[in-house]
C-alpha cells in the first residue's frame, strides 16, 4: 500500500509531517533528488487559513512547485468573484473567508450548498466544467497528480504530472544550479541503485500512490468540516479508487487549543455520521479511529508531539513495503479495499437496508491496536496478546466483538500462529473466561500481512473491524471515568452532541452571517423531522440495544432530491411543527410515562383490562 | 619510511570482513524467513523484497565516498614506493606534470568506478537509520579528504622528509582512511548485530 497522505487542517498537517519525514539524509542547502518518505508515501496539507501556513518552515506552497506542500482550499476563488458574492448574498457563506467559521455545520454547509442544482449551474459558469470548485480544486491540483490517477488525467489533458516538477520546499533559487548538478549525480546513482524517484518514464506509475489516506482531527475544526465533503467529491470522481480516513477524536473536557467540548463533540459526531453513512461506492472505504483521550493518558495532557509520533509509528507496519517473498500484492491498496469491505451473508448485526429495502454495506470502522518491542523473541502469541491489551488499543473497544482482524507485522513470525493467537485471545472475555457464544475471530476472518522487519525489533498492528455491538448496555462500561468499550466512548460523544443541539439553537441557527434561507435549511437539518437530532437519538438507542452499525441514514443540509442518492433532506418549506416544542413534548411525555398511575394503567391495558 | 604491505592487508581484511558480514546477514535473514514462510521461495526473490530506497542524497554521497575512498587508498599506498612494485613516481612524465596528481586521481577513479558504483548497491538491503546516514555523510568525505591531503603532502616531501614525522603523518593518513571505511560498513555491522540477537 502506497498512500497519498492528505492532512486536513492544523492537526492533520502536524501528523502529516511525521508521515512525510524524510528517510534520506538532510543536506543543509540542497536536495539531490525527490523527497523520500517512509513507504514511498506522498502527501499534501490542505488548509483553509493562509495565516496558518505562514511562519512554518516545513510545507511550501504547492502551487509554487514546492514539496512537501500545502494548498489553500479556496485558492482558485478570486477576491472579486461574482459567484462568491452571489453565494454570500443568497446563503450567507463566504467562500474565501480565511479559516472559515470553524463550526461543523458551517463547514458542512459551505460544501454541501453545492448540492443544490442552481448553485452547481452558477459554479459551472465561473469555473468551466466544475460544479463544486472547492473540493474540485483540492482534488485536481493537490491530490490527484500524486496518485496513479494523475497519469491518466495528465495523459488525457496533455498536462504534466505535478510530482515531476515539484522540489523540496524551502530551497532558494540561488541553489538551482547546484541542485541540477546534484540531481544529475543522483541520477547516476539511480542507474545502479534504482532508489531515486523517477520523475518521468515507465517507472513513474510504480512511484505514484495507489490510494489516499485522509488525516484529520475530529475536533471541530477544518479537518472535521472538510473530511466528509472532500471524500465525497473524490468518490464521485473515482468510483473504484481506494481511499481511507484516519479520524482522531480529541480528548474529553476542555482543551485550550480547541473550541468548547459540546461544539467539538457535535463536529466530531457530524463528521463520523457523514463518513459512516455513505454506502459502498459513495464514500470512503474504511474509517480508522484513534482516541486522543487514550494517547493523553499515555503521554500526558496536550503532549501533541508524542501523540503524533505514536499515531505515525502505529501505522508504519501497514506502509512498510518490504513484504514477505511472494506476498508483494497481498496488501496493495485495491486488495486492502476488497478485504475491508468483505462481508458475511449470515451476519445478523451489520445488515442495513436502504429505503427501497435493498441491503447496503456501510463503511467499516477500524480500531488500531499497536505493540512494538526491541529484539526478536519469535513468540507470536505474546505479540498479539500485547497488541490486544487495553494499553495498546488506540480507541476503547472490545476486541472479541470485532468481526475481522487485519494484522500487519514487521519481524519474522508465522502467519498461522498469529491467526491462532487472534482466535484464542478474542475468544475469551476481558476477564479471561471463555463464554459459550464467543468464538473469537476465526482464522478465515483474520488477514495477516507480514513485512520483513525493520532490523531493530518486532512490531504488530492489528486493525479490528467494528469491535462493538451484539450486547445491550455496553455504553455504561467505564472504570474511573475511563471508557472501556467503543459504545461507551461513542455514546458519550453523541449524547454531548445532542445536548449541544438542544441547548444551542441560537448559536447553531441564528448565526449572523446566514441568510434566512440557510437558517431554514439548518433548522430543518438539525431539528426537523428525520433531522440530525432525531437520528442521533436513534443512534443512541441502537447503542443501548447493542445494535450495529450506529449511524444509518445519510443526512445533508442542502441536498435536493437526487436520483440514486439516499441522502435525506427534509424540505424546510414544509416544516410546520416547532421542533423545539417537539423536544419539550418528548420530555414531558417520558416524564408522564414514568408516573406510577400511568404505569399502572398501561399494565392493566396490557393484561386486557379496559 | 615505508609501512610495507601490512597496513594495506589490514584494510583489505576489513573489506573482506564486511563482505562476510553481508553474506552472514543475508543468510540469517534467509533462514528466518524460510523458517516462518508459508511457501517456498528463491533467494533472489528475497533479495528483491528486501530492497529499500535510501534516498538520492544518501546514494550520491555513498558513490562519491567509495570513489574517494579508492583514490585515498591509492594515494596513501601507491604514490610512494614500499607497497607494490608499481607506484606513481614510476610514471615520471605524469609525476613531474603540474596536473600529475589530478591525473593519478582520475585514473584511479576510472579503474575503480565499477566497484565504487557497485558497492553502494549493498545498502539497499539494510534499514539504515537516519542517524547512521547522517554520521556517514558528515564524516566520511571530510576524513577521506584529510587522508588525501596528507598523502599529497607525503608524496610532495618524499624522499626528503624527516623519517619520524613522515611516519606520523602516514599513520594519521592511514587512520583517516580506516575510520571512513568503518563508517561505510557500519550499516552492515549494525544490522548483523540486530538480526543475530
Count of strand segments of chain A: 17
Q: What is the count of β-strands of chain B?
A: 0
Secondary-structure element string of chain B: HHHHHHH
Tally the structural domains of chain B: 1
End-to-end Cα distance of chain A, whole Å, is 68 Å
What is the subunit arrangement here?
heterodimer
Helical content class of chain B: over 70%
Proportion of beta-strand residues of chain B: under 5%
Topology of this protein?
The complex is a heterodimer of chains A (610) and B (197).
Chain A: E1 3-8, H1 9-19, E2 42-47, H2 50-53, E3 60-61, E4 66-67, E5 69-72, H3 82-91, H4 104-112, H5 117-126, H6 133-143, H7 148-157, E6 167-168, H8 176-193, H9 204-207, E7 211-218, H10 222-237, E8 243-249, H11 261-276, E9 287-291, H12 292-299, H13 304-319, H14 333-341, E10 352-353, E11 359-360, E12 365-373, H15 380-388, E13 404-410, H16 415-426, E14 446-451, E15 458-465, E16 478-479, E17 482-483, H17 486-503, H18 505-509, H19 516-527, H20 532-544, H21 579-594, H22 596-607
Parallel strand pairs in A: 1-2, 1-7, 2-5, 3-5, 4-6, 7-8, 8-9, 9-12, 13-14
Antiparallel strand pairs in A: 10-11, 12-15, 13-15, 16-17
Helix pairs in contact in A: 1-10, 1-13, 4-10, 6-10, 10-11, 11-17, 15-16, 17-20
Chain B: H1 6-36, H2 43-50, H3 56-78, H4 92-95, H5 100-118, H6 130-157, H7 163-195
Walkthrough of the structure:
The complex is a heterodimer of chains A (610) and B (197). Chain A has helices at residues 9-19, 50-53, 82-91, 104-112, 117-126, 133-143, 148-157, 176-193, 204-207, 222-237, 261-276, 292-299, 304-319, 333-341, 380-388, 415-426, 486-503, 505-509, 516-527, 532-544, 579-594, 596-607; strands at residues 3-8, 42-47, 60-61, 66-67, 69-72, 167-168, 211-218, 243-249, 287-291, 352-353, 359-360, 365-373, 404-410, 446-451, 458-465, 478-479, 482-483. With 610 residues, chain A is an alpha/beta fold. The longest helix of chain A is centred in the first third of the chain and has 18 residues, at 176-193. The termini of chain A are far apart. Chain B has one domain (2-196). Chain B contains seven helices and no strands. Chain B is mainly alpha-helical and 197 residues long. The mean pLDDT of chain B is 91. At the A-B interface, helix 8 of A face helix 1, helix 2, helix 3, helix 6 and helix 7 of B.
